[in-house]
Amino acid sequence: MTPSIDVVTQANAKAGTVELDATVFGVKPRAHLFHAEVRRQLAARRAGTHSTKNRSAVSGGGIKPWKQKGTGRARQGSIRSPQWSGGGVVFGPVPRSHAHDLNKKTRRAALVAALSQRAGEGAVRVVDALALGEIKTKKLAQVLGSLGLGEASVLIVIDKKDEQVERSARNLPKVSVIRAEGLNVYDVLRHSHLLVTRGALDAVQARLAKPATAKEARA
User: Fold this and answer.
1) What is the C-alpha separation between 81 and 60, in angstroms, rounded?
2) Mean pLDDT in residue range 70-81
3) Residue 4 pLDDT
């Protein structure tokens, strides 16, 4: 059975219903997929700019600190050696990328599972459109309040660039705005509710829906 959900206006008046694709919003959530995809996302965000100098990169130390024998001290070849204060670092971190790959099928399955989990919790709201008319944080807060999301952690999903919505949400600590093309597991999971515009819902389902198999197409 295909699930359906009410579509409301930003004043919280019913504006119809829309069917949710069961292959996007009706699958069984799998926690191990969440872990794999969130780990991949956060690893890719790391700057990887940590750096140290080994003994070849430390300046100075062109000659032996003292002669090899006769001083009563241990032999030393260079003040750049690791045992010296200010010397080189052994096996220290070097600039690198922390990113690692996850195949597309797994990434899609993780996002679909996250969306299905929120849908199963009743935490997905579909609004026909968001039209603020100006860049105003207070106005967006009022819209969220009228939708019953005033105190909730909300991820607003829009279908295209909208500076009025995106900039109005900047000063709302529990609210984030993302375009449908950038929807991802980490942002879905770190917000307790999703507020999706009708256009964004169509874009998300077009992107993630599984095509019918040959058997299903014949049925």
Assistant:
1) 11
2) 94
3) 86
3-state secondary structure of 211: coil
Give yes or no for residue 213 having a pLDDT over 60. Answer: no
Using CA atoms, how far apart are residues 33 and 27, in angstroms rounded to an integer? 13
| pLDDT, averaged across the chain | 93
b/e string for 5-38 if b means 16 or more Cβ within 10 A?
A: bebbbbeeeebeebebbeebbbbebbeebbebbb
Fold of 4-46+99-218: Ribosomal Protein L4; Chain: A; (3.40.1370)
The C-alpha R_g of the chain, in whole angstroms, comes to 27
Mode of pairing for the β-strands spanning 4-8 and 14-19: antiparallel
- Integer Cα distance of 23 and 116 in angstroms: 9
C-alpha distances (whole Å) from 75 to each of 56, 80, 81, 92 are 19, 14, 12, 25
Distances (CA, A) of 163 to 131, 140, 169: 11, 12, 10
* Rounded distance between C-alpha atoms, residue 209 and residue 219, angstroms: 18
- pLDDT tens digits, residue range 102-157? 999 999 999 999 999 999 999 999 999 999 999 999 999 999 999 999 999 999 99
Ordered by start, the domain boundaries in the chain are 4-46+99-218, 52-92
> Which range is least confidently modeled, 61-65, 66-70, 86-90, 158-162?
61-65
14 touches 6 (CB < 8 A): yes
Residue 178 DSSP SS3: strand
